[in-house]
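COMPLEX REQUEST
Ligand: guanosine-5'-diphosphate
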Amino acid sequence: LVRLRARLARSQNVFGQGLLSLLSSDQLDEDAWEEIEDTLVTADVGVTAAAQIVESLRTKVKVLGTRTSADIRALLRTELLAQINPELDRVVHTEPRGESPAVVLVVGVNGTGKTTSCGKLARVLVGDGRSVVLGAADTFRAAAADQLETWGGRVGAPVVRRDEGADPASVAFDAVSRGIEDAADAVIVDTAGRLHTKTGLMDELGKVKRVVEKRSQVDEVLLVLDATTGQNGLRQARVFAEVVNITGIVLTKLDGTAKGGIVIQVQRELGVPVKLVGLGEGPDDLAPFDPEGFVDAILE
Ligand code: GDP
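STATUS: Structure written out below.
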């Protein structure tokens, strides 16, 4: 966890430190406030949230009249935390229900890190002593099932797959069935993420969920978003949110960007908590999203 935090800090604190130094400037005039707002927008916090943060900081700085750097850091920390909404439920529900495995559907556009996130999540659970079945329901990309199989071998989880072009819903169904037969603790299903047409996606994902629900309750639908894709990622997220009921977000590639403000924007837009963050390509580079740790890393 310490290592993850260090990695997060390295990529994020460019933005946090920039803000702190702007806020600590001797002259907090109109230009300075504008620059602070721009910095927030550049970090993908979102225009509305950036304006709110600046407004609130301005008022507080004026009212309190205090300008020590410790005070300013504390004010900024409070503002960012309030925007991240520490109250949201961030538990990834992967506890088996009696005899039935927990079922997690992982959705998102290709290239965002969906398959990698399935593998990493399996690794966390297996590391915790739980048995996991992986389902390769991304049958449109030949490499996807191979990739998931590699992850399965690496983390010790069987992979249910079929030939390329097979019906994703039936693979998902088989994976859940296998999980039930094996009395596994969790089934993680990697779904296809083509975003050619919204209707196609809707049909496909909707069907996967409906078919799986014939066999089991679905405990989590995790949407994988690439933190480096900014507004584009948000547009994708909106489409997915219309199609399925998303229970949490996995924000990947936070290690490669100083645009961690996307955490704020995504939650505001979708009203869904960021539950996990991807901080690299390795098996251990997945961490629970901890708002306080995140904000502290930004302001380190
Ligand atoms: P999918 O098409 O959505 O299933 O995406 P993949 O899981 O194949 O991932 C696409 C690429 O992103 C791969 O090269 C992954 O190694 C990489 N990737 C996934 N998650 C992360 C992350 O958190 N950080 C970094 N730096 N790379 C990641």
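REMARKS: The chain is about 55% helix and 15% strand. The first strand starts at residue 102 and ends at 107.
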